[in-house]
Amino acid sequence: MSVPSKGKVNVDIRDSAQDWAPFAPPQAPEGAPNVVYIVLNDVGYSAMSCYGADGAWCTQWHTTALCSPTRSCLLTGRNHTRNSMACITEGASGFANAGGTIPPERRG
Hints:
By secondary structure, the protein is mostly loops. The chain has one helix and no strands. The two termini are 13 Å apart.
């Protein structure tokens, strides 16, 4: 279970408070296997055949104009704002919808 955010969101950002604790990277348990997930950007379907790699099609998932939020949607099947990826990771803030890290309860 993730740590609840202690941040405060108000109309004026000067009255708001960020909280980075919920976005701390998780620690894998001892002996957990390593998994590599490779996503290619801007190569188009023709780079690996007309049906993608090994005929895999991805349907019914959210896409954005940005790579990081789109990848989070591909990995979780949820909207990018639900994945705490409302912006690219470099633009992350300490607010719940834009922390730049997929919360543990949203991961695979």
